[in-house]
Amino acid sequence: MTLKVESLGAGYGKLAILHDVSLEVAAGEIVTVVGSNGAGKTTLLRAVNGILKPTSGRVTLDGTDITGRPTEKMASLGLTHVPENRLCFPSLSVRDNLDLGAWTRRGKGDLDAVLELFPRLQPRLGQAAGTLSGGEQQMVAIGRGLMADPKAILLDEPSIGLAPKVVAEIMKVLTHLRERGLAVLLVEQNVRASFGIADRAVVMQRGRVVLEGTPHELVELPEVRNAYLGGA
Ligand code: ATP
Q: Any idea where the ABC transporter domain is (predicted)?
């Protein structure tokens, strides 16, 4: 099972943002996409997920062409997108927020499996999601995506605004998803954190893939260290 992006192009109105972007994420693999502000990372995830209709290229999951399918179809096809803003329904309980992810009924919505990944949510199932900490809300957002029993998951900056300890917790969970055989595509500004867990990394600039390799290979490159790792 592989999520394959081939020569994808997308933009907003007449403004072309993504150009000829290709990448692959296999089952049981974490691929991270890094790049400076405005490089097109969010746009890439939106085009892969079909929220934004690609203007060229294609996206396949397990060999099935899913390019530009309606978002509500994507979940039932096995692709889940966890957007940047941790969209929780603040007045709904944690349990109701999670249950919303099971609406496609691709899987049975395995709440126990989600709680195993995020034990912190167990005692908070009845709590309004709006009263959770930022980290816990991120866990709900990811957990909700998992309730659809996806084969591939797209995550847009799950670490943003979180304390280092919570970031580490979220990254750990992503490694568990890899162990469970998901294809994980992770957009991150926190390059240190994402390089710590990723099998491969893709660097984007101005809507194009300019570098790719293992994190280990990429950190050897001065341009990567200077641009994304504070020169360290
Ligand atoms: P960041 O890390 O800052 O979130 P990014 O790499 O995710 O950046 P995108 O959000 O994909 O970048 O934005 C890529 C380009 O597309 C930017 O120049 C941005 O201004 C533009 N853009 C994003 N959304 C829209 C929109 N709805 N309409 C027009 N242009 C947009």
A: 3-231
Whether ligand 1 lies within 6 angstroms of the CB of 21 is answered as no
Euclidean distance between CA atoms 51 and 154, whole angstroms: 13
Atom of ligand 1 nearest to the CA of 189: 2
From atom 1 of ligand 1, which residue's Cα is the shortest distance away? 37
Per residue in 121-148, pLDDT (tens digit) is 999 999 999 999 999 999 999 999 999 8
- H or E element at residue 12: strand 2-12
Q: Which of 42, 84, 188, 190 gets mutated to test ligand 1 (max ligand atoms within 8 A of its CB)?
A: 42
Q: What is the ipTM of this complex?
A: 0.94
